[in-house]
Amino acid sequence: MSFHQHLLRIVMDPRLSRLNEPHVAPITAFINRMRARELDVPNIDPDDGGIGARALFFLTTPGPEAIRSRFVSCKNPDATARNIGNEWHNARLARKDVILWNVAPQCIGRNPTGVEIRDAAPVTQAFIDLLPNLLVIIFCGPTHTQKTIPFLRISPTIEVLRTYHTAQRSFHGTMRDDVREKFREVAQLLAT
Questions:
Q1: Across 6-15, 26-35, 104-113, 171-180, which has the greatest mean pLDDT?
Q2: Which domain holds residue 51?
């Protein structure tokens, strides 16, 4: 994709005009504060639940498509996003009930180190604290993503689940089956 095509895609993305809708505005302000500290942090997708979300899905760090699109979204054109979106659909999870974020929210272009995970934990905690209706957090990625858990204060009223990442290289066999099982568990928790 040429730079001009990339720029046009960003300018024409209708989600950009929705970042101050009530369910998204507090998170947009939060992201803007991070950007003021010169962190390259993509937007959340306003098609997701925003502060009304009841299920938070954590990945590790924004990938190339999140960097290009400027959104952390199941609609990004990459395997990780496609697999998450498909599995949300298969589990019958409504977009208004879910939100997707990263334990290292800034774009770093690689897996974060243990120190970077620890250093990002206050931001991760602040993001969790923006979601008053949260019932479940699911950490997708058994290594880097789950390393953040000991640094967080998660209310005992919030269920914590762990599964594999939805990246294409790990989304097969028993790992894919575990993702599907955990996403269905999320749906069941939200239904009760």
A1: 26-35
A2: 3-191
Domain tally, the chain: 1
Token pair, residue 4, equals 């001009």
Task: State the CATH number of the domain containing residue 37.
Answer: 3.40.470.10
The string of DSSP letters for 124-180 reads: HHHHHHT-TT--EEEEE-TTTGGGGGGG----TTSEEEEE---STTT-SHHHHHHHH
Sheet holding 55-59, edge to edge: 98-102, 55-59, 136-140, 159-163
User: Over the stretch 81-126, which tens digit does the pLDDT of each residue have?
Assistant: 999 999 999 999 999 999 999 999 988 878 888 888 899 999 999 9
Rounded CA-CA distance 186/5 in Å is 38
